[in-house]
Amino acid sequence: MAKRDREATRARLLEAARLRFARDGYDATSVRDVAADAGVDATLIFRYFGSKKALFDEVTADLPAGLAADGPPEELVARMVGAVVFQDWTGYGGEHPLVAMLRSSAHEDARLRIREEVCGTYVRALADLAEGEDAELRAELLSAWLVGIGILRSVVGTPALAGAATADLAPHIESVATALLGRPMRGTSEG
After folding, report:
1. Where do the HTH tetR-type domain residues begin and end (predicted)?
2. CB–CB of 176/142 below 8 Å?
3. How far from chain centre, in Å, is Cα 128?
């Protein structure tokens, strides 16, 4: 098989796995399902990725990292909103890769990875910005709220949130983030 064919097959497998894991979760997704969706033999998953777990790890590796270092601290919440709430995740059926991980949370490896990703990326960065006592708790509250907004927009599709533009949410996000973190925060990266 030519290199181009291998790369195209690998890309088809990743695309099929992204959609399958996002829709069905880890335990309900079989390598045979992913391979059938990609139009290839299931043995190719093991050839290209080694295991179902390695395939899952690769397709859920798109969680935004480095958000804390990507700009001014007062804009961290705005960067998180862009990454969690308004990012275009069409490769995951329109849902954030965290949703695929949440649907897979019955699987111990996925649950640990969710904790590492959420706590290590989002919560830690917010806790570092928070002023006063119980910074970790307030950072977790804000993280839970932002993830909830993302889930209601992409998974549940609640009418008001799904139809809201960044500018519609900005003043509310700013006031909640400012109240929880004890310092002025921007709710969007726009104007």
Report:
1. 7-67
2. yes
3. 21
